[in-house]
Design a protein that fits this description.
218 residues; alpha+beta; Hypothetical protein af1432; four-stranded mixed sheet; 11% strand; globular
Length: 218
């Protein structure tokens, strides 16, 4: 069972589609397959750069792609719902029980309200998910309809995540248009997520750094 296989799984894709639809009705930013594929690839990149095994890289990518399937049931406790759904799906594959538990544990711990990094795979998932801040996650282009989450994401005109293994550093670098969103608004929304990233980086033996418009913030 591979990441490429799970990307084509009809039930996973249907759950992601329904979850993204549900969040659109609730006014949330994009949580589609595009977001989940980006998270998957970024989680794999983080572990590969830090010389983790290819098996751990693959598990992080699988967890990354599946991490938001719980939104199909309910946004509240979507991480826990997602872990249960993922367990049922992965039980039907040839994935070992140990690997399956690693994946569902990562999914179950990725939300900042109830979770946190517990191992390298969950740490990579947290970092990959919480650093996906970008303008094209905003569903509407009508600024008059923006809520604070829309403004914060739309204000980000540039975003990059760099892993520097020699320095044991993971850095998120953002360019933010402060005429759209103030730094106060940004941190009102994202401070908890950034602190979660700090804990995840520490789980990987690294420091987390956030720079905004060229200045170090965290």
């Amino acid at each position: 069972m591979t990441y490429e296989w799970i990307k084509q799984h009809p039930e996973v894709r249907a759950l992601l589609e329904r979850g993204n639809y549900n969040l659109g009705v609730l006014g949330f930013t994009d949580h589609s397959e595009a977001h989940c594929a980006l998270v998957a690839e970024r989680a794999g990149y983080i572990l590969r750069r830090l010389s983790y095994s290819e098996q751990e890289v693959e598990l992080a990518k699988i967890a990354g792609f599946m991490h938001d399937i719980g939104n199909a049931i309910n946004r509240t406790h979507h991480a826990e719902f997602g872990a249960i759904l993922a367990n049922d799906i992965l039980k039907t594959t040839d994935m070992s029980m140990e690997d399956r538990i690693t994946v569902i544990a990562a999914i179950g711990h990725h939300d900042e309200s109830t979770g946190g990094a517990k191992d390298p795979v969950s740490a990579a998932l947290v970092l990959a998910d919480k650093t996906d801040v970008r303008r094209n996650r905003v569903r509407t282009q009508d600024a008059e309809k923006f809520d604070i989450h829309d403004r914060v994401n739309y204000a980000v005109t540039g975003s990059s995540l760099k892993v520097e293994p020699e320095e044991r550093k993971i850095a998120l670098n953002l360019q933010v248009d402060e005429s759209i969103c103030t730094m106060y608004e940004y941190f009102d929304i994202f401070l908890g997520r950034m602190m979660m990233c700090r804990g995840a980086a520490e789980m990987l033996g690294c420091k987390f750094r956030l720079t905004v418009n060229g200045g170090k913030v965290l």
